[in-house]
Amino acid sequence: MYEGVVQDLIDELGRLPGVGPKSAQRIAFHLLQADPTDIRRLVEVLVEVTEKVRFCSLCGNVSAQELCRICSDARRDPSVLCVVEEPKDVVAIEKTREFRGRYHVLGGAISPIEGIGPDDLRVKELVTRLASDDVTEIILATDPNLEGEATATYLARLLKPMGLRVTRLASGLPVGGDLEYADELTLGRAFEGRRLLDV
Amino acid sequence: MHVTRLSLTDFRSYPAVEIELVPGATALVGPNGQGKTNLVEAVGYVAALSSHRVATDAPLIRLGCRRAVVRAGVSRAGRQILVELEIVSGAANRARVNRAPVPRTRDVLGLLRTVSFAPEDLTLVKGDPDGRRRFLDDLLVARAPRFAGVRSDYERVLKQRNTLLKSIKQGKGDIRTLDVWDDQLAAVGAELLAGRRYLVHLLAPYVTEAYREVAGGQGDALIEYRGSLGPEILADPRPGRDALRAHLLEAMARRRPVELERQVSLVGPHRDDLVLQLGPFPAKGFASHGESWSYALALRLGSYQLLRADIGPDGDGEPVLILDDVFAELDSGRRDRLAALVKDAEQVLVTAAVPEDVPEVLSGDRIRVGQGEALRVDR
């Protein structure tokens, strides 16, 4: 145990995701020895983030404004909506530069163990949005694990009766990798999702 | 296949130990509590990535240490494989094969195969169904490592669904989401069920044969998979996954009111059992102590023969046999017959407290275990 405020700092850092007690200690001592102006900058950013950043009222992504950059961009295709779990999934998909539609961030996946049901996710907002927007296709891009699949199935059942085209991202082999290194489950999925080659 | 070398660091009671192993029979002899079982447990851990003695990895790490390392040299189909496992407390374990890290520790499964006999095996016959389900699932993973993923997915789906059933009863859960967990349980459950059903079909004749040999030609042992789906659906030894999935969904729909009332999942492979018949009677409750032992040995010997016959993609499916303190439990007839049945296996590792507990036909190599050391005895 360290004295007073140093231990408080270590405890607070240790509550961050992915930071264990050893890392917390290392970061704390790094901060103690760092240039005071750097630290002031860090503090300012932290304060700014908590005060200014909010969530887009339409899609739920992090945003500096009422509407996020993507939702307020008129060039984006309003007919396709991609449903993801977290804001970081939006960033991942945006990096592909392939998707020109808009997003809807759920804020997680259905997981009874963690006490998360549809009412804890932004499902109601999604349904409201679909009633007013011109969306014709929904792409379900939740994680390819049990909870993500369950969430996708739930949404598909909810949205299909609304006469929408509901699709799910494909699972399969990583591009640029070797077939031999794929695990059996992924390889099995790739077989199920195989497609006809147009030549 | 056989293990050529085993080296342990901070595993159980050992700060550091290394033994060379040879094909044929090796007896590890030493007083109780000196670490014989720890050595064969490490061999089993390399094969299954879990220990039959404990549910978690924590007890495998020597007290006060952060990690344990198990290294095993395996000779298989003329190839030398070095498997290195690092068991870390409070973090993910790491594995290397031939000095190269593997992406997932699970990739090590299937490289080494073992079949272990232990005094606790008697509970396979006398105990509850969960022990027999574990027996089947372990064997399933040994034959086809991809089932390790199916098994852990199934456990997770079950936990999610049971939690949901409980929270619905408390008025917190959303009953509309029960359907999606039914779907998940049916999908993963059908895969596990199909795997187990076919495994039992393959294993049954070997167990019948092994029982006859161990029991000295008396009694007909017949194993049968009994599921919550009913015998007519499981009559087909290779049921289609889609059909099983539909049956599971149908059964869940039928039992939903009861499940909601009792707040547990009542349909699926977690409710199934491996029924052990001895002639017209179930072994549990009807078999004598000796017959129960014969049955337990027959299940292990049958597993050994099944794996041996299944060469697999890597060639050489013959597992290493581990006989941990079993001979002391058996009467002389069973002891001699078991010894005769395993003596020609490629590698047999026997542990015993006293040399007299090792049958003569298995007195090959001898290693004395005591005081944190394991030393070969020149004879």
Structural overview:
The complex is a heterodimer of chains A (199) and B (379). With 199 residues, chain A is of the alpha/beta class. Chain A has three domains: 4-52, RecR Domain 1 (Helicase, Ruva Protein, domain 3, Orthogonal Bundle); 75-168, Dna Topoisomerase Vi A Subunit, Chain: A, domain 2 (3-Layer(aba) Sandwich), CATH 3.40.1360; 170-199, no CATH class. Chain A contains seven helices and six strands, in the order αααβββαβαβαβα. In chain A, the strands form two sheets. A four-stranded parallel β-sheet of chain A has the order 4-3-5-6. In chain A, β5, α6 and β6 (165-168) form a beta-alpha-beta unit. Chain A starts with a helix and ends in a 7-residue tail after the last helix. The model of chain A has no long low-confidence stretch (mean pLDDT 90). Chain B has two domains: 1-113 and 317-379, 3-Layer(aba) Sandwich (Rossmann fold); 126-302, Glutathione S-transferase Yfyf (Class Pi), Chain A, domain 2 (Up-down Bundle). Chain B has a six-stranded antiparallel β-sheet, with helices on one face. Chain B has a six-stranded mixed β-sheet with strand order 8-12-13-3-14-15, with helices on both faces. In chain B, strands 9-10-11 form a three-stranded antiparallel β-sheet. In chain B, α4 (147-169) packs parallel to α6 and α5 packs across α6. Chain B is an alpha/beta fold. Chain B contains nine helices and 15 strands. The longest helix of chain B is centred in the middle third of the chain and has 37 residues, at 178-214. Chain B is globular. Chain B is 40% helix and 23% strand. The A-B interface holds A 110-113, 115, 117-119, 146-147, 149-151, 153-154, 157, 181, 183-185, 188 and B 103-104, 106-107, 145-146, 149, 153, 156-157, 159-161, 163-164, 167, 172-174, 176-177, 179-181, 183-184.
